[in-house]
Automatic annotation (TrEMBL):
Coiled-coil stretches noted in the UniProt entry, renumbered to this chain: none
Residues bound to Zn(2+): C9, H25, H165, C169
UniProt keyword terms in alphabetical order: Metal-binding, Zinc
Classification via Pfam families: Adenine_glyco (PF03352)
Lineage: Bacteria, Pseudomonadati, Thermodesulfobacteriota, Desulfovibrionia, Desulfovibrionales
Protein name per UniProt: DNA-3-methyladenine glycosylase I
One GO process term, biological-process aspect: base-excision repair
Keyword Membrane among UniProt keywords: no
Domain of life: Bacteria
GO function term, MF aspect, one: DNA-3-methyladenine glycosylase activity
Species, as recorded: Pseudodesulfovibrio cashew
């Protein structure tokens, strides 16, 4: 029996170029994000992945994008009971009351961070660098449904924590050229 892959990089190396995991690995995972809506999207997907597989999130990503108005933070923050029920009845996404509620709540929190710091990204940059444990404490205090695994994956996936790729992965070199926040201590 072959050994299991030791890293995501090793896992995707054997996949076809059009595989969702390979595309995510090669074009999104670990790349720094500057757009607040893109950061919000990544946070919502990480929250929804809790207890499920990342494969499911990748397969449902476009459904999430449509259901959550393109991850427009202001639009999601304005959701009322009708939108909440619409989401809970949408078979194309994860229909979990706590996760839907967290998305709406967290959109409102991000609006507050945007008012105070000009952007969600500016708030993240202002807080950086923190250890994963300190990031987790901060996120738990600030947002809903953000445990250690969710926070760690969110921050790693958008360039605030290292470890998205092994050092000999060609994508790692691409990301280093972009100088993600984790490289600026």
């Amino acid at each position: 029996m072959a050994d299991a892959p030791r890293s995501y990089c090793e896992y995707v190396a054997g996949l076809e170029r059009d595989n969702l995991h390979r595309i995510y690995h090669d074009t999104a995972y670990g790349f720094p994000l500057d757009d607040d809506n893109a950061l919000f999207e990544r946070l919502i997907l990480e929250i929804n992945q809790a207890g499920l597989s990342w494969d499911l999130m990748l397969r449902k990503q476009e459904n999430f994008r449509a259901a959550y108005d393109g991850f427009d933070i202001a639009a999601v923050a304005a959701y009322g009971e009708a939108e909440r029920e619409r989401l809970l009845n949408d078979a194309g996404i994860v229909r979990n009351r706590l996760k839907v509620g967290a998305a709406i709540h967290n959109a409102n929190v991000i609006l507050g961070l945007q008012r105070e710091h000009c952007s969600f990204k500016a708030w993240l940059d202002q807080c950086h660098p923190l250890s994963k444990a300190d990031w987790t404490k901060l996120f738990k205090k600030t947002f809903k449904f953000t445990g250690g695994e969710i926070v760690g994956e969110f921050l790693m996936s958008c360039g605030y924590l290292p470890g998205a790729h092994v050092e000999d992965c060609p994508v790692h070199a691409e990301i280093l050229e972009l100088e993600p926040p984790w490289t600026r201590k």
